[in-house]
């Protein structure tokens, strides 16, 4: 039976010691070998420190280059956590509110909500995937390599049916990648900066996440993915990049999880969010 050979990114967040972390490394190395997986990147962090960040396997099967703590992986929807932090930072600064009506925040988007008068879509619904919007289809996901990214203002307008509310907002959960693309657009609209630049300034730079990039502009350290026949695959960009296109490393994500466990400290004594807003991210409000 042919196997899919792809780089994976496992993130462990637990209270373990160095010896146990090494056992995790050996266990992942064994699993990768048994399943013929090219590489597995991982990090183990506690609220006190990053215990280990590393990878097993090879970044590129042709060259045999070992994967390591600075190997870059596409880690998909982990992007959404960064987007949510960016939105909450704007909330903390009083620029927007979680209870703002989406129709007021982005009047250039036609929200199709038959309950608008009694149950408008609120910003918090977008964050929680409870706005009632549908998800994208795979055919709508990516575009050819070496193509320029469209402005988010164009991306969110390409399929008006994304913004049709299917039930009363706040009453049901339904995962929506386009919803987080819209949140990226809201960050740009209310920060006055590209969302990736804004998030770099408030999160990546303070945490010294030097090998993390929201637009995947440098593939020189990217772990290669392979198809079922062990052929290398090109990493196609996605249109909804605020929803899932972050590129990062085990080392950088270890720093990020350490920060998330500490809630407010960025590593430079700076507070990103107050405790109230941070805890609001961890439980549903609808």
**Beta strand count:** 8
Distance between the termini: 46 Å
Largest sheet: 4 strands, mixed
pLDDT < 50 stretches? 1-14
Structural class: alpha+beta
Number of helices: 10
Question: What is the topology, as strand order, of the major beta sheet?
Answer: 1-2-3-4
Instruction: Name the average pLDDT.
Output: 88
The SSE string, one letter per element, is EHEEEEHHHHHHEEHEHH
Helix coverage percent: 25-40%
Approximate shape: globular
General description of the model:
It is built from 10 helices and 8 strands. With 286 residues, the chain is an alpha+beta fold. Strand 3 (50-60) and strand 4 (65-66) form a beta hairpin. Helix 2 (79-92) runs parallel beside helix 6 (177-191) and helix 2 (79-92) crosses helix 7 (195-207).
What is the structure about, briefly put?
The chain is an alpha+beta fold. It has ten helices and eight strands. Helix 2 runs parallel beside helix 6 (177-191).
Break the fold down into its secondary structure elements and pairings.
Elements: E1 8-13, H1 18-35, E2 39-45, E3 50-60, E4 65-66, E5 73-74, H2 79-92, H3 102-105, H4 123-128, H5 152-155, H6 177-191, H7 195-207, E6 225-226, E7 232-233, H8 241-244, E8 247-248, H9 250-262, H10 275-280
Parallel strand pairs: 1-2
Antiparallel strand pairs: 2-3, 3-4, 5-8, 6-7
Helix pairs in contact: 2-6, 2-7
